[in-house]
Amino acid sequence: MHAIFFYMFAVIVVLSAIGVITASNAVHSVMWLVACFIATSGLWLLMQAEFLAIVLVLVYVGAVMVLFLFVVMMLNVKNAPLREGFTRYLPIGGVIVLTLGIEFALIFLDGRFDLNHYPVPEAYPADYSNTRELGRILFTEYVLPFELAAVLLLVAIVAAIALTLRRREGTRHQDPVQQVKVRAKDRVRLVKMPVESPKEPLNKSGRRRL
Amino acid sequence: MSSAIPHALVFLPELVILLMAGVVLGVTVTGSEPVIQYQRAQRLALWTTLLVLGALVLTQLDPAAGWEATGGFILDPLAVLFKGSIVSGTLMTIVYGGRYWHSERPMMPEYHLLILFALLGMMVMASASNTLMFYLGLELMSLSLYALVALDRSNPEATEAAMKYFVLGAVASGMLLYGFSLLYGLTGSLELDALGVAMSQGLNHDPAMILAFLLVISGLMFKLGAAPFHMWLPDVYHGSPLPSMLVIGVAPKLAAMVFILRLMMESGDGLNGLFADVAVICALLSIIIGNLAALMQTNLKRLLAYSTISHMGFIFLGFSAADTSGYAGATFYMFIYLLGFMAFAGSLVYLSQSCDAETQSDDIGALSGLYKRNPLIAAVMAVSLFSMAGVPPTAGFFAKLAVLMSAAQAGFLWLVVVALIFSVVGAYYYLRIIRYIYFETGEEKTALMESSGNRVFLGLNGLLILVLGCMPGLLWQFCYTMLANNSYL
Questions:
Q1: What is the mean pLDDT of residues B289-318?
Q2: What single string gives the DSSP state of each residue in B71-133?
Q3: What is the average pLDDT value for chain B, to the nearest integer?
Q4: From the list B133, B144, B153, which residue is nearest A144 (CB)?
Q5: Which residues from B are below 8 Å from A106, CB to CB?
Q6: Which of A104, A159, A176 shows the shortest C-beta gap to B147?
Q7: Which of A193, A15, A163, A75 lies closest to B149, judged by CA?
Q8: What is the ipTM, given to two decimal places?
Q9: Crossing angle for the helix pair B413-438 and B272-295, nearest 10 degrees?
Q10: Could you tell me if B207 and B275 are in contact, meaning their C-beta atoms sit under 8 angstroms apart?
Q11: Can you tell me whether residue A208 is helix, strand or coil?
């Protein structure tokens, strides 16, 4: 049963990954990628990593891929220039890919990574909480990498803003410092004026007062 | 792994960087004038590097404290040595490059913030004792560097360079990561210590192990810009703004080099034969391609890029010896190269601040008659070029001597001969720049702007190259002892 599901998901992952790079339409590529992610989360479910599987679907499929779709649709990517030079670079690329492929096949197909080299993982007890264990390990054993990854995300935000924010001349923006410093008397100024006589119906701007 | 969190003092330098990066981030979002933000950020970044150097000294109060690798973090002599040089290189970058952006060029306060994040990444890389920490440090550094290259948005060349750097960098990271995943699959551990154990258990003849190592070393060679993976270097150097070129020039290469050294030392005798072969091929290709291609360049940035490739070849020459003196030679070479590169590129930044448009260009002709216009900068450039060419009174001579000696002792005499021939070829293009500076007379030009404080630092940098050329023994001995003291050897 387990094996059937594993192979089903694995085949979907591989096929949809091929679909991502061969689809001629960029939107189709994104859809293939979505299929790939969903099948991967299925694989993770089989490995009893429910939390990761759900997060993969929620974050990647739900948020990232939707953004991807928006961007792809807005950019209106033409396919023709992407394929340009394909035949020109095919010989050298082909030689490299073929060499690497044969090398990898020779190494991996001799049964080195067969299942009998690895112990069968023990099944977790029924009250086992994947999320709790993940949280525990993230904040104890892997706390340094975890914090580093957080800094990495901060860098991504800073870089993205630095590269896209345009400071145009003459734009009106709020200055928080000034806003905080403001006092009541800066806002409303009470002016004492002498009472004007009704004989003078026009004010300075020449408009008739009511 | 006993305790996941090492003693706080051990990563005091990293904490200082992170804290100060937060302060700089605060500065860049408050206050409306970009110029003021920029100047504040620069001053803070400068102080940060000085503080980090101080913190690094503090960590050495109890030198044995950080030796135990905990949580993927280790502070052994190797890490201390390289961290010191990385921070010094970043300090030079901030001093030399900071004044490049002025009113005509967009002043981005984020420039220094990204440098600090890149510095944090490099520090982590230098201290990484497992593959996960190293990869995170590498990505932290790389992301900051990509953004630094693209920072000058008004320049389409910079955007193109950043795009190339990003795509090729992602491919290299992919190779590295695949290698790491294979290593994990084979040893069942992320720790580098586990590699040494696996090696001694006979995994060193496993083809999968060799493949994993080759993938990892390829990724690292890409980050270094060594020959079969050098294609990105000239384009990225050419397109990036000068101060960003200073950032990507040396310090990231130091950080990648630490991990190569760690891998080589950790794998013990197991794979050193393989590493030596890879290093020989890489050294040969780098020295030949770098020096030959540099001959044809008239753009100073491209020329510097190809010269970098050839210098990486010499560093791999040191690796090919695969013993302590070879590693120490490569380290020594890297430090001398740091000084030479910084002096030359720093002078270029200095010249780019001058008012006339012609001197601002990267063309070699812009340097003609520099001797008459600014004798000090001309002298600094000449010293750095002599050092990079390996002419005796400068430190570069002893750097080349160190790596060539160790390669010769390891039995690669033919390689030494080839390297010597091509370093003579290389001397041609270094001397050609000196000819432009001293013997070509450009048309009438005014003297250069004198107000910058960088002249003093550039002068000191040039002087340091000469002093190290007169007494190289001090630094060499220091490198050798630090590496020989390292726990792995």
A1: 90
A2: TTB---HHHHHHHHHHHHHHHHHHHHHTTT--TTS---THHHHHHHHHHHHHHHHHHB-BHHH
A3: 84
A4: B133
A5: 207
A6: A159
A7: A163
A8: 0.87
A9: 30
A10: no
A11: strand
